[in-house]
């Protein structure tokens, strides 16, 4: 008789085993299908054993909102046409005010046809998808005023406006020049822009560290606020009509109105009195309107009325002016004392009574009195807040007078600072790089927003009307917010926020209104792909879950644990709800890689926290009666590395009830991690990393379902739901994880299976550790060590330095294996885009350039920072003005459309390239490592593409015909030296038809020395057929000349002398690695039909088209590359590899092929250096043809960059090849050198290669994780060996 257990245990009857597996799969599929149709059992236990109840669909039949095409923009409280029709008057904008329907509508707004995930910040400031806000009316209505224009699939925002004739940047600077005490970003931090148009004023003030609330009504200026929010600029729908604005008294530092079409003196001056109420004492009102500067009778009457009204309110006119474009403005200031009010002859308008001075402004009518000046807790009049950024954490003047208010405020700040940095940014699997517009639905003191201040996001802080009124404190901190009643809809368009955050909001709401209505409103205002973070009681989460389930959200859970809990509080449970593409397609058809909505909720355990990090009996993962804890201490079962753990943090046969109503693992099944019910590997008791294990996980994959008990009798003791554990020192019986597992935590696991990816687990023993005893480089300048540029022994032996030979590469042999130390006080760099304007001094502690260029506004030191004002030797009016001057001088340049790839020679601190990013131009900034100390290091720390190189005796490491434009502003290169070889090198890498912009003293100075240089340059450019297409001098007396390279051979053939000659065919290939400069004119590139190559397609079309210089099969190869990288980046890199994209700016693809990886990241706020190894197929011309940048390199040598300059290094099947030519350890040392602490390395390669490099990385104390047996993710730490 056959023992029924034996066939499965020993696999002696493979047909029985296979049949059983098939039956099991069918059974699980049936159960899963039924579960998906009826209900979904989910559970997250709290500390008392509470769990989610079974989710049942609500008896709600969801429907799309009707009403025709406008339903996609439906705003319930502003589109209540039945109520609007009943209005008795509309003369005070009553029709634009809130009129909320009762009951609340429960329809779902459809998506516009062709809707896409929004363009990411900061690109979104300048361009958005047309299909997302398909309202062209404003383009036509304001076509003469440069607000917005349509360009292909996009709306483009040039930064113009009715009053911004010379651009909004010039207008902002004009204001500060008119009244320097304004001090944008220091004295003035919080601004209100009334009648904001498309919010370009607020959008560009962000560059000045100013946060602006842009507001306008929903009126004939179709969709202006929708444009603003789609651009990623703070904005809200509102109107100055009959009611107070939903802001507290004395909130804004400055209020701005540029032709905002408000009649300030109407109705007894109530509109201006409302501004007075919300303007901080000592704050400014800027009125830029025609009555200020036009003198006809109508305008003069308006001006006189405004003068009388402002004087009656004691506003002082502190400035009045007209700029060069004829646009004028007046600046008023609100008083800081009562003395003026007391001295008025007429008490009109009167001061408000005390009862009218409260901050109640929700559905409250406008008043015709002057609000009283605020007093602090001691009864003294307010002082102006501390300068930014000190005011963010200083005690606010408006803080409650209650005894414990200061302590509560400080505790709140510390709480959110720790929770956001340790949990929200790292532990909740949120793709922060896709998040720009954030709302805190119950903001308290604004601690959540303050904790995010270093991220490229903005936060709308909402104070519910029934909560403690802390909104004044939020504004005092330099943040923005509004009052709101969450029983009604919010004043915004659908699809305007990327993340909604709610803490302990819903319990109060359920006492006043239906929680279903709140969930519908959240669904309305959240973008597809957006997130909701909910922290509340288990009771509230149980109420919310079936509502979200009824909206066709599939529900996934993970017990989120770790050592980062602030104050040893338990890290909350994690509920993640993902709206699947299949359901989302009922409202919008997405491509396979686009995401729906993410909901993350967790119980608030602040009152039930009995677990700390030491001597715990229960886990921080929550649920049931766990016997395992998060890390450290004398835990019964520790989830950290080391020790002799019986159970791991997420699954296996843990005693905890984790997630679900079971007592084993974190799923719905007895042996499960995450939501997967059955582990791959059947009855495995050993890892499948190779050798003769009893059971291989690749042979034993039972089922991988979500949240369904498949009825498996599997006896696995351990499971992993997605990635591998590689090497652990402890003797763990069970090591499970819900998604990723540590590599190199040195354990011998008995069971390490993966369920989702069918991958094996690699385990190393102690003998596999790399034995290298690492040492720190010990010379004084070692923190900036660049092996191939700092080889002083080789440099000393040079016979000549006349051609910059000492600045060229001289690589030591063998390569050094010391580790560069960190500068004292080094910190994680400031994130982009703030980094463009300021970096930490301790990260690049080189003050020499500050002194050397102090008169030229390159860089200055300010406290703990270097600040970059955007000046330069040739940028007397700032780099933005200089960039615009170039385009005005020669309009065909077309920044961001025809010109996309630029080389800036002798770049200084790279401000030219940094500000061209705003124009959709990628600039390779280039300079040598010379007496301009650390200029390239400054550039890279700022997040601007840059490389160390010099035009000396060797070719630059770029292909022929690469750059659209080359720029030199006083770059100190003698172009005519050595027979003109430097300029001939530029000619080689400049695209036919491309431009060379030379801004240097010989262009505009007339003394003999400069004149001789000019004549020499004129002769040389003429000899190589460059045409001078423009020459100009700006108002600062800085001049430039623009040359254009020919697009045909006709000029070369007509030259009287063939000097310099055309290069022979042997010189025309793209070999430029250690190749000498040549004294000939490179041939023009040919397309596949042997015609001279044409200019690439306009951006962004060129990104998807190979250049005409590419090989014949390039189209097919490029398309395949695009498809592959587009899919894998969106599905794995952005979502599945636990990379914190919000910290990533400088990226390098070490083996870039066609640049598909970079192209897939094109909408992210980062840049990619595409490296083509010298022994790889030469595809670098195609990369440049696509509008990307790159370089040649030999990875057996060091890269020409400073240490700590990249946030992410990406290597796809590079290291296997490199290992055939040089020692892989040297490559790893170089990777460690150029990667920043807390930076990421992603290696896609063979397991053999991964097994070779992992011990080396482990010896460097890197944190490693392995995905799908081909993707190794390493995180570099701050570790350096002891000196």
Quick description:
Residues 667-678 have a biased composition (Acidic residues). 23% of the residues lie in helices and 17% in strands.
Description:
- The protein is α/β, with parallel strands linked by helices.
- It is 23% helix and 17% strand.
- Strands 21, 22, 23, 34, 35, 36, 37, 38, 39 and 40 form a 10-stranded mixed beta sheet that branches.
- The chain is globular.
- The model is unreliable at 1-16, 28-55, 554-596 and 605-766 (pLDDT under 50).
Structural class estimated from helices and strands: alpha/beta
Task: Work out the number of β strands.
Answer: 40
DSSP helical segment count: 33
Unreliable segments of 5+ consecutive residues: 1-16, 28-55, 554-596, 605-766
Rounded to the nearest angstrom, the distance between the terminal CA atoms is: 71 Å
Any idea what the radius of gyration is?
33 Å
Q: Work out the strand percent.
A: 15-25%
The largest sheet, given as strand count, sense and whether it forms a barrel, is: 10 strands, mixed
Share of helix, binned = 10-25%
Topology:
Layout: H1 6-10, H2 14-37, H3 81-85, E1 127-129, H4 137-141, E2 149-151, E3 154-156, H5 168-178, E4 190-194, H6 200-205, E5 211-216, H7 224-231, E6 235-237, E7 252-258, H8 270-278, E8 279-288, H9 290-293, H10 297-312, E9 316-322, E10 328-333, H11 339-343, H12 405-424, E11 437-440, H13 447-451, E12 458-464, H14 471-476, E13 481-484, E14 497-503, H15 506-509, H16 515-525, E15 526-536, H17 538-550, E16 554-558, E17 574-578, H18 581-584, E18 598-603, E19 628-629, E20 637-638, E21 723-724, E22 726-729, E23 742-746, H19 792-796, E24 838-840, H20 848-852, E25 860-862, E26 865-867, H21 879-889, E27 901-905, H22 911-916, E28 922-927, H23 935-942, E29 946-948, E30 963-969, H24 977-989, E31 990-999, H25 1001-1004, H26 1008-1023, E32 1027-1033, E33 1039-1044, H27 1050-1054, H28 1114-1133, E34 1146-1149, H29 1156-1160, E35 1167-1173, H30 1180-1185, E36 1190-1193, E37 1206-1212, H31 1215-1218, H32 1224-1234, E38 1235-1244, H33 1247-1259, E39 1263-1267, E40 1271-1275
Parallel strand pairs: 4-5, 4-7, 5-6, 7-8, 11-12, 11-14, 12-13, 14-15, 15-18, 19-20, 22-23, 27-28, 27-30, 28-29, 30-31, 34-35, 34-37, 35-36, 37-38
Antiparallel strand pairs: 1-3, 2-3, 8-10, 9-10, 16-17, 17-18, 21-39, 23-39, 24-26, 25-26, 31-33, 32-33, 38-40, 39-40
């Amino acid at each position: 008789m056959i023992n029924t257990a034996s066939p499965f245990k020993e696999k002696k009857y493979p047909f029985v085993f296979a049949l059983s597996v098939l039956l099991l799969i069918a059974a699980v599929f049936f159960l899963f299908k039924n579960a998906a149709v009826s209900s979904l059992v989910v559970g997250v236990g709290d500390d008392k054993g509470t769990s989610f109840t079974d989710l049942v669909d609500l008896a709600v039949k969801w429907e799309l909102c009707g009403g025709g095409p406008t339903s996609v923009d439906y705003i319930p409280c502003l589109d209540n046409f039945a109520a609007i029709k009943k209005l008795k008057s509309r003369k005070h904008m009553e029709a634009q005010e809130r009129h909320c329907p009762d009951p609340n509508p429960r329809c779902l707004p459809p998506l516009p046809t062709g809707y896409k995930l929004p363009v990411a910040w900061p690109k979104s400031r300048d361009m958005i998808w047309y299909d997302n806000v398909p309202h062209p009316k404003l383009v036509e209505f304001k076509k003469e005023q440069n607000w917005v224009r349509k360009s292909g699939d996009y709306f483009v925002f040039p930064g113009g406006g009715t009053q911004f004739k010379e651009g909004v940047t010039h207008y902002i600077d004009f204001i500060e020049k008119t009244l320097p005490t304004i001090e944008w970003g220091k004295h003035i931090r919080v601004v209100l822009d009334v009648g904001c148009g498309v919010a370009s004023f607020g959008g560009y003030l962000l560059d000045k560290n100013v946060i602006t609330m842009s507001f306008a009504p929903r009126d004939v200026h179709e969709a202006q606020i929708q444009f603003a929010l789609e651009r990623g600029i703070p904005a809200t729908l509102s109107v100055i009509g009959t009611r107070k604005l939903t802001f507290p008294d004395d909130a804004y530092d400055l209020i701005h109105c540029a032709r905002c079409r408000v009649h300030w003196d109407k109705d007894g001056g109530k509109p201006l009195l409302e501004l007075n109420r919300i303007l901080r004492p000592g704050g400014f009102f800027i009125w830029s309107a025609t009555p200020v500067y036009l003198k006809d009778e109508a305008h003069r009457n308006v001006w006189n009325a405004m003068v009388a009204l402002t004087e009656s309110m004691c506003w002082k006119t502190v400035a009045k002016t007209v700029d060069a474009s004829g646009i004028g403005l007046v600046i008023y200031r609100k008083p800081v004392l009562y003395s003026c009010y007391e001295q008025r002859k007429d008490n009109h308008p009167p001061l408000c009574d005390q009862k009218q001075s409260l901050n109640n402004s929700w559905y409250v009518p406008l008043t015709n009195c002057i609000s009283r000046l605020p007093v602090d807790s001691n009864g003294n009049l307010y002082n102006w807040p501390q300068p930014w950024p000190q005011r963010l954490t200083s005690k606010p003047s408006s803080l409650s007078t209650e005894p414990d208010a200061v302590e509560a405020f400080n505790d709140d700040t510390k709480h959110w600072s720790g929770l956001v940095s340790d949990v929200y940014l790292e532990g909740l699997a949120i793709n922060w790089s896709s998040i720009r517009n954030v709302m805190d639905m119950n903001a308290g003191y604004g601690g959540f927003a303050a904790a995010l201040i270093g991220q490229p996001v903005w936060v709308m802080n909402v104070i519910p009307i029934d909560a403690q009124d802390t909104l004044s404190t939020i504004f005092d901190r330099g943040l923005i917010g509004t009052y709101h009643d969450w029983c009604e809809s919010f004043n915004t368009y659908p699809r305007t926020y990327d993340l909604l955050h709610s803490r302990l909001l819903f319990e109060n709401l359920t006492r006043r209104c239906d929680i279903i209505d709140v969930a519908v409103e959240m669904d309305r205002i959240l973008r597809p792909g957006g997130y909701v973070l909910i922290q509340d009681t288990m009771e509230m989460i149980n109420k919310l879950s079936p509502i979200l389930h009824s909206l066709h959200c599939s529900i996934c859970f993970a017990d989120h644990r770790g050592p980062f809990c602030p104050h040893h509080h338990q890290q909350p449970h994690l509920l993640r709800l993902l709206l699947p593409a299949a359901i989302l397609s009922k409202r919008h058809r997405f491509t396979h890689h686009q995401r729906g909505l993410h909901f993350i909720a967790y119980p608030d355990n602040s009152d039930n926290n009995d677990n700390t990090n030491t001597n715990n009996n229960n886990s921080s993962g929550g649920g049931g009666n766990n016997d395992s804890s998060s890390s450290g201490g004398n835990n019964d079962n520790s989830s950290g590395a080391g020790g002799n753990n019986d159970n791991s943090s997420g699954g296996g046969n843990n005693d905890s009830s984790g997630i679900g109503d079971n007592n084993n693992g974190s799923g719905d099944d007895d042996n499960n991690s995450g939501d997967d019910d059955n582990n791959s590997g059947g009855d495995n008791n050993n890892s499948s990393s190779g050798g003769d294990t009893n059971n291989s996980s690749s042979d034993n994959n039972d089922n991988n379902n979500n949240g369904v008990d498949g009825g498996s009798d599997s006896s696995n003791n351990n499971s992993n739901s997605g990635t591998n554990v590689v090497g652990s020192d402890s003797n763990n019986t069970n090591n499970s994880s819900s998604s990723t597992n540590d590599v190199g935590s040195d354990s011998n696991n008995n069971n390490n299976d993966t369920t989702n990816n069918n991958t094996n687990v690699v385990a190393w023993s102690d003998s596999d550790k790399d034995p290298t005893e690492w040492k720190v480089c010990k010379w004084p300048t070692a923190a900036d060590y660049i092996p191939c540029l700092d080889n002083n022994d080789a440099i000393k032996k040079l016979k000549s330095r006349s051609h910059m030979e000492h600045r060229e590469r001289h690589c030591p042999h063998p390569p050094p294996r010391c580790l560069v130390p960190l500068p004292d006080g080094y910190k994680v760099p400031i994130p982009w885009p703030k980094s463009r304007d300021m970096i930490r001094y301790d990260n690049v502690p080189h003050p020499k350039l500050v002194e050397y260029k102090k008169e030229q506004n390159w860089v200055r030191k300010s406290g703990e920072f270097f600040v970059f004002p955007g000046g330069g030797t040739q940028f007397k009016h700032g780099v933005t003005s200089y960039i615009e001057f170039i385009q005005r001088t020669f309009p065909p340049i077309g920044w961001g459309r025809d010109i996309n790839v630029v080389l800036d020679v002798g770049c200084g601190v790279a401000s030219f390239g940094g500000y061209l990013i705003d124009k959709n131009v990628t600039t390779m900034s280039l300079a040598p490592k010379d007496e301009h100390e650390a200029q390239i290091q400054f550039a890279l720390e700022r997040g601007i593409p840059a490389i160390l190189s010099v035009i000396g005796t060797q070719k630059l490491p770029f292909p022929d015909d690469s750059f659209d434009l080359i720029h030199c502003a006083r770059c100190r290169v003698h172009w005519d030296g050595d027979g003109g070889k430097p300029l001939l090198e530029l000619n080689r890498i400049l695209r036919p038809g491309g431009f060379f912009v030379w801004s240097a003293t010989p262009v505009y100075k007339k003394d003999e020395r400069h004149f001789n240089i000019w004549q020499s340059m004129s002769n040389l450019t003429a000899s190589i057929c460059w045409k001078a297409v423009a020459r100009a001098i700006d108002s600062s007396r800085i001049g430039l000349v623009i040359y254009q390279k020919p697009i045909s051979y006709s000029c070369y053939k007509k030259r009287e002398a063939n000097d310099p000659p055309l290069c022979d065919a042997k010189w025309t290939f793209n070999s430029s690695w250690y190749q000498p400069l040549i004294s000939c004119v490179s041939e023009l590139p040919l397309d596949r039909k042997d015609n001279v190559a044409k200019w690439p397609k306009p951006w962004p079309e060129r990104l998807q088209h190979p250049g005409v210089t590419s090989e014949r099969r390039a189209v097919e190869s490029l398309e395949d590359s695009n498809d592959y990288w587009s899919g894998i980046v969106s599905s794995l890199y952005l979502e599945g590899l636990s990379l914190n994209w919000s910290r990533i700016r400088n990226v390098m693809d070490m083996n870039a092929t066609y640049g598909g990886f970079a192209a897939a990241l094109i909408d992210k706020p980062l840049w990619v250096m595409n490296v083509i190894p010298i022994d790889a197929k030469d595809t670098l011309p195609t990369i440049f043809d696509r509008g990307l940048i790159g370089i040649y390199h030999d990875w057996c040598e060091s890269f020409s960059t400073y240490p700590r300059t990249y946030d992410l290094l990406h290597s796809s099947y590079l290291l296997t090849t490199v290992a055939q030519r040089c020692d892989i350890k040297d490559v790893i040392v170089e990777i460690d050198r150029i990667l920043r602490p807390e930076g990421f390395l992603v290696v896609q390669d063979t397991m053999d290669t991964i097994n070779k490099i992992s011990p080396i990385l482990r010896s460097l104390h890197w944190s490693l994780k392995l995905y799908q047996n081909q993707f190794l993710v390493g995180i570099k730490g701050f570790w350096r060996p002891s000196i």
